[in-house]
Amino acid sequence: MKDFYKGKKILVTGAAGTVGKEIVKQLNSFTPAELRLMDNNETEMFFLMEAYRDKNVFCFLGDVRDRDKLEKLSKDIDIIIHSAAFKHVYLSEYNPFDVVQTNIIGVENIIRAATACNIKQLLFTSSDKAVNPTNVMGTSKLMGERLITAANAVRNNNKTICSSTRFGNVLGSRGSVVPLFMKQIKNGGPVTITDRRMTRFVMTIEEAARLVLQSVLISKGGEVFVTKMPVVRIPDLAEVMIKLLAQKYGYNPSDIKTVEIGAKPGEKLYEELMTDQEVHRSLELKDMFVVTPAFKSLFQSITYEYPDIISTQIQKSYISENETPLNRDDLEMYLIENRVLEKVEESYY
Fold it and tell me: Catalytic: 248?
């Protein structure tokens, strides 16, 4: 991977976000020729600028709604990684038109900028919420995926390869359940669980960024890469966190209770990363699945061949309730080995 990114000029949108910052960190270790970082969060961009005083890292304030800005920043760039988006489900329901402007029109703008500047590759970071969406945010991410795929069918003489990567919950990211549980444990409980039957795909911030960058390496155009992830039961996550943190905050683990408060409107008991309709046109690789475009006749010039293919005949959709969850001991080891709780404390507290 290092050889691929070495000497490349790369634009990252949403660079000040949780995953965006980790993508920047990993990219910078690969000695690219230039990193252009864009976000509309002035404070976080200032901190990012302070963190990277390298001559090849440049920080820009900007919004993906501004096509002119995107086109200026895309000149002479080799790769664009587009991670800027509105991601919070409930805020999106209250502000649907803003979500359209950022998550849909913003994707159109990045595609137009990439094709106008003859960018070699464009990768869009999507979400599990795009699968059978029940809300505005998920629907907007699904539309983003569709636009990215369709861009390959209409690229004509332009050689820009556009693809998407789809992953689930990033442990410790903003808005994730880990900081919430940590705060509740710190306050002595109770820890609130919406439904004890709930399961979720999870991954660390480092894993999410690594698989995003890996997807760029092997993309052909129009695919959606679906990362493989462990599954956890949310009650198990709560109990393991109580075990690991209670005494640190001055409590006995038995003193901190968990309370079931009921699922939120539109909240699923399980997570979907690949639908039944997508299974039949998907491939399984070592670390991910590849969902190829539905309208194959539009992509006849693209050959979907990849290293490390495990199967071309996937039997079932990728849904958290169908996968074996980590047991509590394995989940505890996963949190400890990846320093998940320590990193959340460093970021939030």
Answer: no
